[in-house]
């Protein structure tokens, strides 16, 4: 752990309250909330990524993808708000600053600029993979500590998976093969998406 990370933990501890919700010990609440912080950052990153794609998608499928993404942006914003408010309710300070997001995230920055719909959607599929997997990990931990957080995450996972289904529906051929399958990075997924799209044309 770096000095910067240690300082961030100390500052966070100083800014946390000395209470939690009834029936949930302060130490357990703070430990769970630290995991929720990663979900808050993931959702804030997701909404920015979705808006970036909304602005930068080009080609014949522009309008359908452009219009599909705005409701997903609003959904991610609402989810981030729900997570942050639960953290605050538990007596823990939610951190929503861009600097902390960039300093602590464990995933790559979205690398695709102006590009065809198939490229963006294949890369976005991997973004959803990461957000949903992270949510599931914290959901499993929350189930041992706080059913309220578990319930929040279950509801969010359901909606995130539905959004991913919308994305994937553009990437699946008639045999059920997913264009982004097996990709190790967003750039690789984008390339695979473009190749499959050209083959289908």
Automatic annotation (TrEMBL):
InterPro entries: DPS_DNA-bd (IPR002177), DPS_DNA-bd_CS (IPR023188), Ferritin-like (IPR012347), Ferritin-like_SF (IPR009078), Ferritin_DPS_dom (IPR008331)
Residue ranges of domain Ferritin/DPS in the record: 35-171
Domain of life: Bacteria
GO molecular function, one term: ferric iron binding
Record-stated family: Belongs to the Dps family.
Name of this protein: DNA starvation/stationary phase protection protein
Source organism of this protein record: Parenemella sanctibonifatiensis
């Amino acid at each position: 752990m770096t000095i910067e990370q240690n300082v961030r933990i100390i500052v966070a501890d100083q800014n946390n309250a000395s209470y939690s919700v009834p029936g949930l010990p302060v130490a357990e609440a703070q430990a769970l909330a630290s995991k929720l912080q990663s979900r808050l950052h993931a959702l804030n990153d997701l909404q920015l990524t979705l808006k970036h794609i909304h602005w930068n998608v080009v080609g014949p499928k522009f309008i359908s993808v452009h219009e599909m993404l705005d409701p997903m942006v609003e959904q991610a914003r609402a989810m981030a708000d729900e997570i942050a408010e639960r953290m605050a309710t538990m007596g823990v300070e939610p951190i929503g600053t861009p600097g902390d997001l960039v300093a602590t995230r464990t995933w790559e920055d979205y690398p695709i600029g102006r590009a065809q719909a198939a490229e963006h959607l294949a890369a976005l599929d991997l973004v959803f993979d990461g957000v949903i997997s992270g949510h599931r990990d914290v959901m499993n931990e929350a189930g041992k500590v706080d059913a309220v957080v578990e319930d929040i995450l279950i509801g969010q996972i359901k909606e995130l998976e539905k959004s991913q289904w919308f994305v994937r529906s553009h990437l699946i051929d008639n045999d059920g093969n997913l264009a982004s399958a097996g990709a190790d990075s967003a750039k690789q997924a984008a390339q695979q998406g473009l190749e499959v799209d050209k083959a289908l044309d």
